[in-house]
Amino acid sequence: MFEVGILNSQGLNVLLIGSENTEYILSSKFLRKMYAVSDKNVEGVVNISFNTFKELAQKCKTLQIDLVLVEDERWINEGIADVMKSNYINCVAPTSDWTKLALSNSYLRQLLEKYGFNLPKTTLLPSEFPLIVKGDGVLKKADCLQDVIKIRQEVYNKSPHIAAGLYLEKYLEGEKFYIISLYDGKNLITFPVENVPEEMLSEFSKKTEVMLNKENANFLGFIQSEVILCDNMLYNTGFKFGFRKINCDIDILYLLWMAIYGKLNEISIT
Fold first, then answer.
1. Inside any domain, residue 6
2. Apex CA 182: angle with CA 180 and CA 187, to 5°?
3. pLDDT digits over 26-37, tens only?
């Protein structure tokens, strides 16, 4: 394929924002040169620094960086992908308009309900405990009514607006998993998770892809879904972003190169 030919002949210059997956990237046979924004010194990796995202974008152009991978959710929440994208730099990270999935529990629940995900039931009058008290930036377990009252008061003291949006979710007893998916702007692939049935994973992946496409998501990035397997059902309880090592035998840079071209639908994950 044309894309593979480019990778074999040239390789990619890659910038990793973070340090957790340095060795993972270094192991790719398609790597030409690796840069990092990190406080660790690793042989074969050139560390760079920046003060603003605009400055970083200019450095990426000067260094001819083909791909920016963002591990740190802090940078994602501050809009690094938006600046890279506006400067025509390939950046693996959701744009700022999608960080609400990780930052706002109320927005997340509304969106997941809209697309038919399994969610823990909510209650207005708590009668069974424990419960989970949720809101924007709030996720706390309550073992009794007094805990609920205390949590509400603590949140109200900091932000009456957030306190007004608090809600109570049933506490689910089950095994917790993290499902990692990669989205290229139109196609989504989900990587295997040990002990999660394949048919459940496939259904979950399809719902996530439909949600992103219907909501006109326009980013290249990883989505880490927090789920609980309870009563033979997968319940979604949250999202995280950032580059993660994946459970897949396909070379990571080849996979990301295909994602840049919007061809994840041609990738078979077994």
1. yes
2. 135
3. 999 999 999 999
